[in-house]
Every structure is written in structure tokens, then in C-alpha cells.
Design goal:
single chain, 214 residues, alpha+beta, 8 helices, 8 strands
Length: 214
């Protein structure tokens, strides 16, 4: 059975590490990773933060990046197209491909990369950890779960999951609403205050896990 691993990587020669260390207030979100035979590997990333000046200066000197260009400028964040200096970085992506792993999400900040990767099984994850150890990459596992563990994946408790499903089914999330907290209270047989607290906590956890990746 496949497993999804969330972990942090750090090494001086991981892609963009010099830039992320030089501009610690900036965050990089991986949008696309393009690797085709005969072509220079590309990264498409969203960059956000309040220090684009430092980021742009640092990326000019970053030996892990062959070239870069801004595709979209939205003031608060920018979309960059990055050509990777393939000979000067650690071969992490080829290691994923060799193991049959599928990258799902990536975020870089302050010199570290947080990754969410689907591995074919736990043995493949163990092989990747061994690869990191051999290459001098600091590997820190944060979370491990199976794709069928939706509750664990989004860090929801059973009561929170029940409340969200019930709210959806009776139209509490519709605009305008087709149900009230009183309706939810009757359906779940708990107080309105308890319903409200469960929904707020569940929604907070969904935003944290599904959107922010925390």
C-alpha cells in the first residue's frame, strides 16, 4: 500500500537553498516541476513575503539556478520560472523517480524544504531516507499516513468530521443557508455551542492541513 510522507530536507546544494537562506522572510511554493529528456529541468514556483529585494539579489548568485524569469507579478507574490543548474544540485528528483515516488507539494523557507511525497510503500520511503543519509541531506519526517486515512490526513477528530459532513448534508454551508445551528444541534444531539466549536475547529484544521500544509 502506498504511503504519503511529509518531511523536511536541508542541504547546502539543494535547489534554491542559498537564496532561501539569504532571504529567510520569503516563502517558495512549488507549482510545477518539469523534467523532460533532453531539456533543462524547470521549476515553476510562487514566491511570497516582504523582502523581494533580497530574494532577487540572492537568486542572481545562486549556483543551483541556471536562469530565472518572472512570469506573473501580483505585488504580494510572484510566479517564477527557474532553470535548474542540474550539475550543481543534489539529484533528489531522480531519486524520487527511481523509487516510483510522486511529488505532491513543496514549500521552501529559511533554507529548508518541506515536501509531501507519495511513496509506493514504506520500503521505498526507507530507501529514500537511506539516499538522504548517503548524500548528506538532513531528513526529518513530520507525518506519515496512507491515502485512505482522510481523517488523519487533515488532522480531524471523529466528532469534527461528523459535524462537517452533517453541516454539508443539511445545507449549513449553502448561500443562503438552508439550516441553522439549531438544526445542526438537533441532528447531532449536542448543544449549539458544541456544534459551533466543532465546526470552527474542523474548519481551522482543514485550512491548516489542506491549504497551508501545516
Amino acid at each position: 500500500m502506498s504511503v504519503i510522507a511529509e518531511f523536511t530536507l536541508h542541504a547546502p546544494t539543494l535547489v534554491l537553498t542559498p537564496t532561501l537562506e539569504a532571504a529567510p522572510g520569503m516563502t517558495v511554493e512549488l507549482d510545477q516541476q518539469i523534467v523532460a529528456a533532453g531539456y533543462t529541468p524547470l521549476l515553476i514556483v510562487w514566491v511570497s513575503g516582504d523582502d523581494f529585494a533580497s530574494f532577487d539579489v540572492a537568486i542572481q548568485a545562486d549556483e543551483t539556478i541556471a536562469s530565472h524569469a518572472i512570469i506573473e507579478d501580483l505585488d504580494s507574490r510572484k510566479l517564477y520560472r527557474l532553470e535548474i543548474a542540474y550539475d550543481d544540485i543534489l539529484p533528489v528528483y531522480p531519486a524520487y523517480r527511481k523509487l516510483g515516488a510522486i511529488p505532491m507539494a513543496g514549500q521552501g523557507k529559511a533554507g529548508d524544504w518541506q515536501r509531501r511525497i507519495r511513496f509506493p510503500d514504506r520500503d521505498a520511503l526507507a530507501e529514500f531516507q537511506q539516499f538522504c543519509a548517503e548524500e548528506g541531506i538532513e531528513f526529518s519526517l513530520k507525518r506519515l499516513y496512507t491515502p485512505s486515512d482522510e481523517q488523519m490526513a487533515f488532522q480531524l477528530t471523529e466528532p469534527q468530521l461528523e459535524a462537517l459532513v452533517a453541516a454539508y448534508e443539511i445545507g449549513y454551508f449553502n448561500v443562503p443557508r438552508d439550516a441553522t445551528l439549531k438544526d445542526m444541534s438537533s441532528k447531532l444531539d449536542i448543544s449549539k455551542q458544541s456544534v459551533s466549536e466543532r465546526l470552527r475547529r474542523a474548519q481551522s484544521r482543514l485550512v491548516s492541513s489542506a491549504i497551508l500544509g501545516e
